[in-house]
Amino acid sequence: MTDLQIAKTITLKPITTIAEKLGIQPEQIEMYGKYKAKLPLKAINKKVADNSNLILVSAISPTPAGEGKTTMSIGLSEGLNRLNKKATVVLREPSLGPVFGIKGGATGGGYSQVLPMEDINLHFTGDFSAIEKAHNLLAAIIDNNIQSKTNSLRIDSRTISWKRVVDMNDRALRRVIVGLGGTTSGVPRETGFDITAASEIMAILCLAENLIDLKTRLGNIFVGYTYDKKPIYAKDLKAEGAMAVLLKDAIKPNLVQTIESNPAIIHGGPFANIAQGTNSVIATLMGMSHSEYTVTEAGFGFDLGAEKFFDIKCQSAGLKPKAVVLTTTIRALKYHGGADLKALTTENLDALKKGLPNLEKHLENISKFKVVSIIAINKFTTDTDAEIKLITEFAESKGVRVALADVWGKGGEGALDLAKSVIDAVESNTSNFTPLYNWNASVTDKIETICTEIYGAEYVDYTSKAKTHLNKINHLGLDHLPICIAKTQKSLSDNPKLLGRPKDFIITVREIEIASGAGFLIPITGDIMRMPGLPAHPASEGIDINDDGEITGLF
Questions:
Q1: Helix axes of 416-428 and 69-82: crossing angle, nearest 10 degrees
Q2: Phi and psi at residue 51, to the nearest 5°
């Protein structure tokens, strides 16, 4: 059966029942129908959260189809609950871009799903819409101020860095001209659109700890300069209050359920190749406030989402993860060992051996943060015993825990060995989370530390444009901010064609964007687009609905 067919066989529990499993009374939640709800921020208890065991699920460098971090996260939480550990999975919300594009939804797969999957993948509780509206409100206010004769800050339109956003893959919007149509239609200027998942508002929502913090961060968004070279922030336009109003419900995390009727909290959805790649601080703290084990994920590979999870999110919110589950697939290792993408279902021990250095590098990266790692082999039906044995022997040679997990086919039952390994790792008390770098180091030192230590680059090169941006960052006094590198997820390098564990390569920083509201800097490397495009045959071609309102084609 397809994921959607499996989801439709499940009888959902009322969301009030799921809330009670968390210890939250029905009258405290805000219902969105029978099976979705918003959780109140007052339900977060930081002291209780500090005693919860935070488990991060990440992955090796993926194939284009992804390696199943979300499915693994859900399955692990089911397995922990089966072992009588009170566990909650905390995930990101899906973007409509991948849903209608090539990657599909983000609610897991098989018998490790969060439900109702149709609702979650399509609009959900409207959080993305609210983020989009708040972002575009600021864009409208900026253009209105340029047009105004009585309330003008004399913003130099050539310096405006704030684009508009839409939650869709639409390459035609990457570069646009606004303000055409005459003097009453605005001032013509070149701008563009990013996808909503790449919006700084998304990043802000995911790092804010409460409404006041949210409003402060919104006010700190850098917009551009005046003709007198004075920096302009959103607070100078008096925009933060109205933007926060649009986000008053979106800031509250969403409660749904897993296939096995366990709690799942879903909130925020930044991509990891162009943003920080993790769910909200609020959602994570909510899970930790009501669970013995909180399982969360950071995508894409460890070099992207997990590094940002550790160096940005954990530093910002004071989180200390107890273990990292590294989702590993035989198909991805064969891909990184040189096997053709169309032949990954065929046994190929030689390619598998050649791909192991990619796994080895990610394990080394985890150890740099002094957190214990567990390899989770995400089982596919095409995996052979010999291939599984090869990875298991490799893990044993490295002294790393390893577990075969059939979470797609068996749900929590298929994750019992993994759950036992996680419990063992936590109870061994060997993790001592340490960030990779100090935020107060210079911008170039921070970038080069990530590129050389995590990616394995020989050194970092900066274009003249990036050097200009470095000077601007120092002039604005923002050099103390952490780093959120935009990079391809397909390789440890900035070149998607360099598979496996590339060496002796150079990372080129083309430009550096300022996300002063979110509180980080974004060096852009390689050919990274913050507005993706659709493939020749997008997933939307197979999505439909009948007269009874039944949806088909989602995956």
A1: 80
A2: -100, 0
Residue 503: strand, helix, or coil: coil
d(Cα 513, Cα 473) in Å, to the nearest integer?
9
Percent of the chain at pLDDT exceeding 70:
100
What pLDDT digit, counting tens, does each position of 367-379 carry?
999 999 999 999 9
Q: Which residue has the tokens 């018998």?
A: 111
CATH no. for 127-246: 3.30.1510.10
Is 302 among the residues known to form the active site?
no
User: Which residue among 124, 128, 222, 300 is the active-site one?
Assistant: 300
* Dihedrals phi, psi of 477, to nearest 5 degrees: 70, 30
Q: In the annotation, is 272 catalytic?
A: yes
| pLDDT tens sequence across 80-93 | 999 999 999 999 99
Task: For residue 16, indicate whether it is catalytic.
Answer: no
Q: Residue 462 in contact with residue 509, Cβ under 8 Å?
A: yes
Predicted local distance difference test score (pLDDT) of residue 103: 78
Active site residue 380: yes
Name the catalytic one among 21, 38, 69, 501.
69
Instruction: Give CA–CA dist 520/497, Å, rounded.
Output: 28
Question: Contact, 487 vs 445, CB < 8 A?
Answer: no
**CATH number for domain 3-126+250-428, candidates 3.40.50.360, 3.40.50.300, 1.25.40.10, 1.10.10.10:** 3.40.50.300
Q: Specify whether 92 is catalytic.
A: yes
pTM (2 d.p.): 0.95
Query: Considering 100, 310, 408, 505, which one is annotated as catalytic?
Result: 408
Active-site position among 272, 298, 323, 332: 272
Residue for token pair 């409208």: 140
**222 catalytic per annotation:** no
Candidate list 21, 103, 354, 490, residue with the active-site label:
103
- Active-site option among 85, 159, 226, 380: 380
How far is 282 from 3, CA to CA, in rounded Å?
29
Tens-digit pLDDT profile for residues 495-532: 999 999 999 999 999 999 999 999 999 999 998 888 99
Residue whose token pair is 């050099």? 479
Are the beta carbons of 314 and 424 closer than 8 angstroms? no
Q: Which CATH number fits domain 443-525: 3.60.15.10, 3.40.109.10, 3.10.410.10, 1.10.260.40?
A: 3.10.410.10
Confidence band for 391, pLDDT divided at 50, 70 and 90: very high
Q: Backbone dihedral region of 410: left (phi > 0), alpha (psi from -120 to 50 degrees) or beta?
A: alpha
> Are the C-beta atoms of residues 209 and 139 closer than 8 Å to each other?
no
Point out the catalytic residue in the list 63, 70, 71, 196: 71
* Paired tokens of 282: 């609020």
Enumerate the domain spans of the chain: 3-126+250-428, 127-246, 443-525
d(C-alpha 541, C-alpha 45), whole Å? 45
CB contact at 8 A, 32 and 463: no
Beta bridge partners of 53: 293
